[in-house]
Design goal:
alpha/beta, 4-stranded antiparallel beta sheet, 11 helices, 10 strands, 24% strand
Amino acid sequence: MTLELKRVSTGYEAVDVIHDIDLRVGEGEIVALVGANGAGKSTLVKAISGILPVRRGEVALDGQRIDRESPRARVLLGIAQVPEGRQVFGGLTVRENLRLGAYARGERDAAQFEHSIARVGALFPILLERRDVPAANLSGGQQQMLAIGRGLMAEPRILVLDEPSLGLAPVLVAEIFRLIASLRGQGRGILLSEQNARLSLAIADRAYVIENGRVALSGTGEELLHNAEVAERYLGVGKGVAVADSARHTQLAARLAALLGRS
């Protein structure tokens, strides 16, 4: 399954935030969407999911236009979004939050639901261990696992992740990115919208750099990760960033590269 955007523009009220975006996410690949806060990444994610209408351009899934479809219809077609900030329901248990992820599919059969829960639990064992615990009692990292698990309950072929590392401690960020990388082996296409560009590029097959609502640069994750100009101009590791911060990000990126078997 391939998600493709052609010259997509949209925004809020009378102002366009993203302009003429061309983007493609193929089966079994991780595509990173990187850029500074306010660059337009979340707006683009909302346009893909149907939360924000596309004003111009096309969004297609396997060649079929879906930009006029509702968010629910897009879920049924195979697109699921994991929102920024996790947005789990704190008063509901882990199990109940996961059930909500399957709601759009109308899953009523108990055996089928348990099978879906088991698949998610194989990726995130802690969720099975704490399935009867209110989501509000989970750690930030566990809540992010729950948010991803809830998205997977929709059985998507394209999973859209919006800022999954937001608010997490560095050691948890590395774990979340390792789990995201493992999803690629299941044949899903993954669009990873993330301000933490170094870590995103470390696991991405391809990437798009967004600046002022436009695609400023694209290439493989490895190419962009090792491009000095990109690092300084777009990825937040240039002259304006403290050496300590740069070193920490470099170490985390190295750990992820080692997990993925890269040199």
